[in-house]
Write a structure and sequence with these properties.
By secondary structure, the chain is an alpha+beta fold. Helix content is 54%, strand content 9%. It has a domain of 60 residues.
Amino acid sequence: MKRFLISLCVLFFLQAAEAKQHRVRVQDPVLPQSAEVSSFISDMVQRNQFKQEDLTRLFKEVRLKKSILAAMDRPAEGKPWREYRPLFIEPKRIAGGVRFWAEHEETLARAEAQYGVPASLIVAIIGVETFYGRNTGSFRVIDALATLAFGYPKRAPYFRSELEQFLLMTREEGFDPLSIKGSYAGAMGISQFMPSSYRKYGVDFDGDGQRDLWENPEDAIGSIARYLQGYGWKRGATVLAPVQRVVDEAKSLANRGWSFRIPMQQWAGIGVSTDAAPTASEAMLFELAGENGPEYWLGFENFYVITRYNRSFHYAMAAWQLSQAFEAARVPRPASGSAP
């Protein structure tokens, strides 16, 4: 009887394990070897000299992640500003950023001097993206990119391009493409760079001979600064200005993006006024759903540059306000030889 019960228990656990494996297979099937996948592989062979058999073998290991497709339809940036802001402008993230700045002060100062991007903004982007490297993503990047490249028609061309960049990156850097982890959208490392950004803007900022954005904060700091500089960051230029007054006729001009930007004198002429903006610069007007009703802001070119990291105005606003919270909370290190 005892042997029977033991055998029954063993059978139960084996069946449970098999059922679990079956559920995984149902939830995350192998990426279908469709005509689109075959065409992509052929293009990679012709354009980039990959071996057909290597890519065919690789794509048989790739999974179609349904959870990724669901996540793409409910991004955090879709929340109203009054709900989005507290996710990032909150005590733990501010304190964590102040600590991160203190730990990497020399590297951040060097990045600011070289690229012109404020140390506080570099820290803020790392804080928003990965909570200072704690949350860099658990999805295999190749699964994420392939799922979106072949299962998300709305943005398929973009993600196919990033999948191509990822395969080029892993070949260049000697990475196993099945081992790299990242976000559900395929962003990687402390800086959450997409593969194209890694290839174009990733830097070996500590000079150890490797661009490591997963484990090396120095490389991540330098790479973020170079990225923002590459998109046109202007050292010391205005980022944002709160609007003090906006007439109803001008409100219809809000949220049209950077393509609709006009000089400050023209904004003033149509009823948009602010005390903090320079008179000669161009700006775009945007509206946020604040806790006490609509907020209106003027965004200058440096604000537009932050949106190149993430196109959401909510994201860019959170990153900038978090950076300002660091500036207010941080106690700078005394200069060498000065009194404590």
